[in-house]
Amino acid sequence: MEDTPISALFAALLICLASSAFFSAAETAMMAINRYRLTGKVRQGHRAAVRTQNLLNETEKLLGVILLGNTIINTASATLATLITARLFAGNEFALGLATLTVAFAILVFSEATPKVIAATHPEPVAFFASGPLALLLRVFYPAVWIVNVIVDALLRVLRLRKRKDSNTALSPDELRLLVLESGRFMEKKHHTILLNLFELAKVTVDDVMTPRHQMEMVDLELPGDLLRQELFTSHHSRLPIFAGNPDNVLGILPARKLLSLSEADTDADAVRSLMRQPYFIPSGTPLFTQLQNFQENHRRMGLVVDEYGELLGLVTLEDILEQMIGEFTTHSPASGGQLARQPDGSLLLDGSTSLRDLNRKLKLAFPTSGPKTLNGLILEYFEDIPEAGTCMVIAGQRLEVVQTQDRSIRMVRLYPQ
């Protein structure tokens, strides 16, 4: 080594620092690359992606060759620095110590920190570039890598630490939802909203979206003939729940289109009985996703929600569930509540039966939905009484005023803008 020119030693030191930077960047890029995007490129036949995935499928060997190369090169860098210092400053211990610190600083900045930051910022191109040399080095140094891995396995057994045999990267529902949230800027807003709504279907129940019992349009078969025909032929709905005497005594569901086969004169209670289908009941608290599957399996589009005592609570349709995913798209009858009317002063006039979930979604509010499902229920729970018209309150940071009450419920509420 004494005959080696000093310039050659400097060149070797620079090569070592550059090689160390390569291994540092390769390690960071390989660990930081997006596995799902990588899988997509592999399916497209991208050669570098296939090579990268093959290396990642053998993570132990990949890390072994990277760490082996990095360790050897860093050791060589320190040795070369010592030789250069000895040649330039023979016997000067201070110069030798300063050279050691200088090399350590160079390795830290130029061979570790900088390449790792670059690789973490651009993992995909760095990983694809490094995959070729790493695959070649793995073949060349396979015996040494194998020996290192055997020793590591032995140490893990001594420490009684189990090594995972598979690289299970499956995402939990919460992790997948977070992934959709974070990737919102890469997809259309409507698609992003639909995906997020899908995750909510398992948490939202039929009680949250059903039409409450007092808003349901039902037909009583015990009505006189003229009134019965008027109820049937003036309905705004395509399916009508039919009961006899007591609304809890639901006999069936009548598809309104079947009335077209009858003349108005022939329409009576017996004719209606012959046309209606058996009612389909849904237990209260059923998650929307489960109910969507039940609708599909039972070939139904509408169900009646009942509590544990069998009392009728409301009605849920397939459209109600679909609107939770993609937003409103169906028309509403003139008698349906839940409409928002903006007033000249900027306030909103709300129906007391308006769903809290709908308000939160449409107006970006934060009303609690774990208890009452409607605005009327929320205010009644707040006061534990029926407030008089003109009563004001603040709930969830929103100022509300009771505008109209009727019987035992609140009919109209004014929401003041913040």
TrEMBL record:
Using the UniProt record, give the first listed, main subcellular location.
Answer: membrane
Q: Keywords, A to Z?
A: CBS domain, Cell membrane, Membrane, Repeat, Transmembrane, Transmembrane helix
**Keyword Disulfide bond listed:** no
Q: Where in the cell is it found?
A: Cell membrane
Q: Does the keyword Cell membrane apply?
A: yes
Topology in membrane: Multi-pass membrane protein
The CNNM transmembrane domain, residue ranges: 2-193
Q: Which SUPFAM superfamilies match?
A: CBS-domain pair (SSF54631), FAD-binding/transporter-associated domain-like (SSF56176)
Domain of life the protein comes from: Bacteria
**Belongs to which family?**
Belongs to the UPF0053 family.
Q: What is this protein called?
A: Magnesium and cobalt efflux protein CorC
In its UniProt entry, the species of origin is given as Jeongeupia chitinilytica
